Amino acid sequence: MKLIARRRDEQQETTAVRVGDVIIGGPELVVVAGPCAIESYEQLLSTALEIKRLGATMLRGGAYKPRTSPYSFRGKGELGLEMLSRIKELTGLPVVTEVMDARDIERIADVADMFQIGSRNMQNYTLLSELGKTKRPVLLKRGLAATLEEWIYAAEYIMSEGNDQVVLCERGIRTFETYTRNTVDITAIPALKELTHLPVFLDPSHGTGRWSLVSPVALAGVAAGADGLMIEVHPQPELALSDGKQSLNFEHFADLMDKLSPVAKAVGRKLI
Amino acid sequence: MKLIARRRDEQQETTAVRVGDVIIGGPELVVVAGPCAIESYEQLLSTALEIKRLGATMLRGGAYKPRTSPYSFRGKGELGLEMLSRIKELTGLPVVTEVMDARDIERIADVADMFQIGSRNMQNYTLLSELGKTKRPVLLKRGLAATLEEWIYAAEYIMSEGNDQVVLCERGIRTFETYTRNTVDITAIPALKELTHLPVFLDPSHGTGRWSLVSPVALAGVAAGADGLMIEVHPQPELALSDGKQSLNFEHFADLMDKLSPVAKAVGRKLI
Amino acid sequence: MKLIARRRDEQQETTAVRVGDVIIGGPELVVVAGPCAIESYEQLLSTALEIKRLGATMLRGGAYKPRTSPYSFRGKGELGLEMLSRIKELTGLPVVTEVMDARDIERIADVADMFQIGSRNMQNYTLLSELGKTKRPVLLKRGLAATLEEWIYAAEYIMSEGNDQVVLCERGIRTFETYTRNTVDITAIPALKELTHLPVFLDPSHGTGRWSLVSPVALAGVAAGADGLMIEVHPQPELALSDGKQSLNFEHFADLMDKLSPVAKAVGRKLI
Amino acid sequence: MKLIARRRDEQQETTAVRVGDVIIGGPELVVVAGPCAIESYEQLLSTALEIKRLGATMLRGGAYKPRTSPYSFRGKGELGLEMLSRIKELTGLPVVTEVMDARDIERIADVADMFQIGSRNMQNYTLLSELGKTKRPVLLKRGLAATLEEWIYAAEYIMSEGNDQVVLCERGIRTFETYTRNTVDITAIPALKELTHLPVFLDPSHGTGRWSLVSPVALAGVAAGADGLMIEVHPQPELALSDGKQSLNFEHFADLMDKLSPVAKAVGRKLI
Fold it and tell me: pTM higher than 0.90 for the full model?
């Protein structure tokens, strides 16, 4: 049986995934930015205003955070969702946030324009199926040792329930290399374009784990054909409660946006 | 903070995990056997009777099966649980079965003496926490690219909720080697013995993916200090609905049990 | 002790490696192209003329080929070197070719402007040291499971003998992913720029193993900051004696060169 | 074409490899022990006498050492060979030592009963071919990211030159796990027994990188069917010039030999 996600021959164009007014998979390159975790109203607001000013068109921010240790900061939860809701209203930016538990879907759906499935849950099949039943867009991150085939099957769990609004997000895989947090599989971008009709994102923040490498790898992603980028931005990365090492500050994010534009143009895309 | 799972210095002995009458982590080597998936009452019954006759002391069998493709056989569900319940009564064997969704916990708890967390859900933190709130033993399989440290933290998610009845089960990690389904990390067994006070199992069936390799790798696990083994057994592996290639038939399982006994003895363990 | 290869703080600029008239590590992006293995005079000549016409500035071609099986085609040997010599004279293109044995160095040095060390020999220390004693440039490919650190140490084996003309060439590492031949570690490019002052190349042909993915990954490499590319080109890839699947034909190579120019410009580089 | 190394169907028995009086691949388990690197006459002599007393039947010791950094201790060279020669005469133990350069073969052949090819040179094809032309036994270690298939092909490079005296030595592969130096692929032992007729060794010292894990993994190797073990032993591991962390002192080696005997017996092998 031909998977819904793989019907590339029947569908030449990339599926358009609509998140508020933003269209993912069209000619425009979509930049999603924001903090790893929502820490405070001020942190989220200042970041949202700044990334919007610099050209990002969607806001990310985690309210529920999967953490390796149960004793780490695990997010603001409902309070975080409320902050997200108010800032979305203020800025008009559509928001994407992670869901880890099928029981949180409704609550998160009140705020989020797009659900995010993190790497650790890429094969949490009950969660995928439940998201398939909503018609809300899903950003599906690659599992840290998932093959392209397994990843496409994970998308199929969502799509086979009737939801075709799926974006695949490469975020690096686990290898023996220790200088970087993960190894970005840049080839996954054109490979997925051959294998599926779904839009493909790149997250160079998790992919590299070092802020100094985020910008060149983001440019590489665009050159390789990514439909969008997901970038961690924090007002003061050195004080972040999670993933500070891989977050850009405002100045570095501005610098990235400056560099993105000509590369996008060079491969026939434009920033909005 | 010292993790509960790692208080090896305060606790010299391996934690005893009690599953029905079976004690895991004591001087006796525990063999859990049964089919990958429950396919029919007859299949499960004949397997249960045979493995019991040959010396296994616990029965495994999946009612809810995580499968890469949504179109594969995903288990008998509640019907499977009913079969498990009847056969448990008939044979007296305690049973372990996989839970993939927090909403199934109660239903599975009516039948299972031990919950199994599969590789794909090793970092499904909401599921781990919910199992922590039950006091039922948990067999926690290693994620397919999980470090020892991440695995121990996953156990801590269960233990920090008050449930110390956790068994770690090595089942192979993902590497570049393609001859085997996974690469058994045999060193994980003594390494976990240094790092934690939890009992450690080996699953050579998933670890190797080839029935002909199950037996030598099982012996290796015992020699390396495993507290128990988890072995897939099927009356007719060539007809199995899942994992047939790695399942032993009755004759091969009998042969394995014959070989296990002297190796267990050689390292100071005994079969029951 | 600070490695010679890592004296980034003392040396802000990338080391200029001179191969004939070509400067690697300067503002110009260098494209090296040619067949995996030299098969015949006609094959090499037609390829050399075509890649030159399309803007490549160096010719590659293997006379001595490391092959997994001793029974595979292992190159034309000295005959291949002679062809390389004649075609170099005819076209004026500097040439790079692989050396696998210290005893071949002199013979190859008569023809080659640059030595190539392949992945399998990245830690062949006697070979590295011998090349260090020549002052000829060396293209050092990454070992298939080498960390960045080990790779830099391999360069140090050459440099510590007095030869600073070393170019590092990323060609993909080995991971669990099977859709591609190797996994291109795109982040290695900016990471090496942080860690060393040596020029960095990308070989998207070996990196991906599929011709259809070579072009987008080549563009990604340029966007990430590579100083050059190494591309396998063959007049009729479907008839190639080695690596046909990953070789571009002339039409596809022309298409790549067309796309390269704007991306190079977007990141402040130019094609010659 | 059927590889010479894989003619398992034509040859039921494991190839007997003869090193002095020692037969590898027969009913007896062979233990090779000694220091990673030869550091002094006293160090090598005391180790040789002690391992012999405890039941090892071959001596290992590196005179030429491949080291990641060119500035690390790279072995005593010819002086080391002389020491090896004198101690071989004194103790009667056959010796195995590493060769890294085809130009050293003759010199090493004067002393060594068996050549060792290290991981970094597993695909150094010119070296393999040259060793094939000698009729001296070769211990061929697995490359750190070599598949079983590539490893068998490497053996074929030796065998196709007429030398069938090859022993394959598993020494761990490179994975994401950082607690251990490498990941021992224990399944490789029975897998190679299916695929080839060559004897198989395990090196748990390099495989684990931690002395405390050497003993349980050595026992696992024997239980899995290894024909022999290669163990690093040093009079004072804390003072060793290389690999001290993974070397056993005499007491720990004695303890391992005590434990080996019953496990060997349990799988139908005996120590000499």
Answer: yes
